[in-house]
Amino acid sequence: MLRCRSGPPGISKRKWGIGMTAIAETAASAYLEGVFAPINTEIDAECTVTGELPNDLAGVFVRNGSNPMFPPKGRYHWFDGDGMLHALHFENGRATYRNRCVRTQALAAECAAGEALWTGINERPDFSQPGGPFKDTANTDLVFHAGRLLALWWLGGPCYQVALPSLETVGEYDFGGTLSTGLTAHPKLDPETGELMVFDYSVLPPYLTYSVMSADGRMVHHTDIDLPGPRLLHDLAITERHTIFLDFPLMWDPELLARGKTKVTFRDDIPARFGILGRHAEGEAIKWFEAESCYMYHTINAWESGDEVVLVGCRIENPLADRPDHETVPRIDVLRLEPYLHEWRFNLVTGAVRERALDDVMTEFPRMNNARLGRPTRYAYSPRIAEQPTLLFDGFVKYDTESGAGTSYGYGDRRFGGETVFAPRVGATTEDDGYVLTFVTEAGTGASEAIVVDAQRVEDGPIARIEIPQRVPIGYHAWWVGAADLDAQRLTP
Ligand SMILES: [Fe+2]
Hints:
about 500 residues; mainly beta; six-stranded antiparallel sheet; about 40% strand; binds fe (ii) ion
């Protein structure tokens, strides 16, 4: 499947026998060009560092993303590409870079066929395909749970275990045979109990299911959540005792769906609904709260405060709005991305809902200190959306989510970054005692680096820049696996 070529000294390089120019030419999409263009090499490299890598930064930074390995069949959507991981292993003040495709079963089938077999979400679903109409790419997110790094897919499917630091795909992981549904991106990991709260959604009833996985990687709770119809969900949130489900009026057009066609529609006359359920409760016990109509891809955090549950995330007023700002507000096909930091407060006793906008700067793909997920937090690290027609981040903002005040760092002219992961310093004592990590790629040259920013001195910019010896395409979500987790890795089912 792979042709091997020797690379420059100090770099181990493997090249797929697939022409990436052919991919860009056969499926015109802005998300196949420039900083988004896929790559067909897998390399291991010791990296040159400018500045000084702190010794208390120890672990692996891994980022997932969409990287089609074959010319797409039909119209391409950015969400369709095969999962590719880019990682930096920090150890003893050194950084080693690797990138690998996630070897999904679907990719193996396409490699055997020598071409793409699945169409993407811009085409009519082909229900004759084994495993479903859309190709499970495991391209979206990552989570380290029960000693395993798992690559996850936004539309829900099997998840794939990936070994660290090699990034080799171990195979599908089904939680010891206890997983009875697919798994979407963005499960939530309780940092104290080790439980993983997951959901799956479907165009057929039950439209939403919820499961809790134990700290040792077994499903210990499963229930259906009643929704009025199929919805396009993307994330959830947790507190110490509750799970928060998001029911926004973004959906497949019901009439077209009944005829086997998929077209996304948004109903701004339908309120946003937030369902709060005890972590181990049955679905019938859910308590729904209504708020102004909106959509949200990503939450930042939620916690309990007296009688209230507080939720902070990136609110989009209308993800399909037709406004004449195509050059300054990014789009991914029909999806318009104009998200702002927002807070909701749900009173569990009175049922009251309060909400407020916290800032007027467009940000998305937010991260926080995962060691405090579900507990009161103050800080978020949110990539800042560039005024471009495609989704690009030209810097990031460290937010104080109590006040909405932010401290920004910009990457510079024509330089674009990704999700900004927080890596706690070894021995960290406060919430922001650690580092912010992201890949940054320069448009035009493709020169790529990872930057390390002291989270308590964001305005100072990187304390270290790590040169990556190939272009790192813009991608999706990332995860920090600290040295202690790495030592506890389990590679057996
Ligand atoms: Fe996401």
